[in-house]
Amino acid sequence: MDYSELVKSYKKLESTQSTLEKTEIISKLFINSPKEDLDTLAHLIRGKAFSEWKNLDLGIGKKLIIKAISKATGIKEEKVKKEWKNKGDLGDAVEVIVKNKKQQTLTTKKLTLSLVQENLEKIAGAEGSGSQSKKISLIAELIGSAEPEEAKYIVRTVLENLRIGVGEGLVRDAIVKAFFSELIGLSELDGYEITGQQVGIDKQLLGSISEYRLNKVKEKTELIEIDLSDDGISKLWKKEGADVFITDRKKEIEDRLKGIVQHAYDVSTDFGEVAEVASKKGVQGLREMDIELFRPIRVMLAQKSDSMEDAFEAVGSEEGLAALEYKYDGIRVQIHKEGSDVKIFTRRLEEITDQFPEIVNAIKDSIDEEEVIVEGELVGFDPQKGYLPFQKLSKRIKRKYNIREMIEKIPVTVYLFDLIYCNGNSLIRQNLRIRWSKLNSLINKIDNSVELASHLETSDLDKAQSFYQKALDENQEGIMLKNLSKRYKPGSRVGYMVKLKPVMETLDLAIIGAEWGEGRRRDWLGSYKLACMNKETGELKSIGKMATGFTDEQLEELTNKLEDMIIQEDGRSVKLKPKVIVEVAYEEIQESPKYESGYALRFPRLVAERETLGTGDVDTLDRIRELYGKQS
Ligand code: ATP
């Protein structure tokens, strides 16, 4: 497929806010895509170069892009920077530069999706000496083959800042629409709308409605059966190429199909693969997709509870029974084991196996089962000194050499709390009771760097309170409360797992902009613009500025990190790639027309940088609304 086709869709997506229209645009793109491009398309449409589980990083900053633009067009870097300042956006700037250039030269070869993908892969793979200039040449090659508008989106994609408002849910719905709309059926048959109301039958009597319609269109229909869920069979009637169903069931079938696509994505973390399977193998193919060892899945997240009573209300299953566990303060890890191969992944799906060889060995010693995926919290724990602060632990993640020395300096323990996969079987559809008891049965308690999380099952509030107190006395962050009868939902923040902590609610927000300081602080970026996540569109929305509460050391550290993420400069202000996530405390949430979220934080201050989080973990606008509601 020509890249220009995708660009047409980007423009349409950019110009509408309607989720229905957006779904329609993306699904058309999927339908018209040659099969071999579907995989690439499913990533690029979300502004991602690769599927998430591969965890490939382009590692491109604005400096490299400027060099690449200069190389591709022969325009001096200084001029590129000037145009950038002028336009305020590097994508817009490159569009103008390429436009001017095109008037003087003949168009070169056509840009295709496969060329874009090929070069993105080479960029991510470039390592070692000479890798920078290799990356520049690869981007320059793309810009050199691009029409002005294409160049704009290439630059935005490479900067991971596409800004067209396409989130996960939209891609899922578009896959359903593109490949399964005939299963959802038409609401019209020969111009005659078949709804419950029109045939005058009570909606309760769906079965009868089905029979009724079947009788009416019998001669020309062919009955097909599709097993859409674990709990039943949906019948669809095909008539002269068009599938027909009773309108009352349309929503139900559509929702089930969305559930099937979502599940396929949950187990694969790869929309490219999901789209391909949907188009080639249909519903059945998607249902057969499953977790694969060494391909990390996104973790299930918790909600916050304000009191023990609320927590029990949220997670209590039969007779109010709930599972309580210590909330350890460390790094969430997902550990995959196949025989003697073990890999450790973070919740951002990054692999950190090499940094923790002692955990690899401990897992091999503690688990005899051939194939497992377990989840737990990796905590810095020194038998002499007790729990180590998170900052120490994060040093171990960054350290790629002299690992032996680190093992002694910063010893770790992993507290396991979930079992996701065991010997060929995914357990995510099983309830926690089954997952936890199975996890218990497969841990040999011989190595103390692998432990089971402290766990109590009770419906008794007093017992729960003392467990909570015990966790705090032992310097844990708080406790988690979990519903024992619920499944594991990858990538979701579910209401049936909640955390209870004594501290005031903080927010995890992305830094999306900043300002150069003045006087003594002129070389440092400060006054950080914060943003929360609009989950529907996948867009970050500003929610205020954080200007106080930093030590000089913190400012310097943050500046060093953020400097590489500048995507636009305007006088003293800079726009940043949203890569740095911070935990922010505040006095109050206020309504404010000044920021895109419609809210502002009063007296926001930095608690800590959340190095293990990505943009997907940023607190949502819904959560802000909820907190705001609670305040008043
Ligand atoms: P927080 O900032 O409170 O750590 P978070 O956004 O990192 O929250 P949540 O899902 O909201 O993640 O809170 C649960 C987190 O607590 C998990 O991601 C995990 O890293 C950690 N954790 C520690 N102990 C447990 C446990 N026993 N069960 C589940 N999660 C645990």
From TrEMBL:
Gene3D superfamilies: DNA ligase, ATP-dependent, N-terminal domain, DNA ligase/mRNA capping enzyme, Nucleic acid-binding proteins. The keyword Cell division applies. Its EC number is 6.5.1.1. ATP binds at E325, R332, R347, E377, F417, R493, K499. GO terms for molecular function: ATP binding; DNA binding; DNA ligase (ATP) activity; metal ion binding. It catalyses: ATP + (deoxyribonucleotide)n-3'-hydroxyl + 5'-phospho-(deoxyribonucleotide)m = (deoxyribonucleotide)n+m + AMP + diphosphate. Keywords: ATP-binding, Cell cycle, Cell division, DNA damage, DNA recombination, DNA repair, DNA replication, Ligase, Magnesium, Metal-binding, Nucleotide-binding. Its cofactor is Mg(2+). The keyword Cell division applies. Residues 405-534 form the ATP-dependent DNA ligase family profile domain. The active site is at K327 (n6-amp-lysine intermediate). GO terms for biological process: cell division; DNA biosynthetic process; DNA recombination; DNA repair; lagging strand elongation. NCBIfam families: dnl1. DNA ligase that seals nicks in double-stranded DNA during DNA replication, DNA recombination and DNA repair. Belongs to the ATP-dependent DNA ligase family. HAMAP family: DNA_ligase. This is DNA ligase. It comes from Methanohalarchaeum thermophilum.
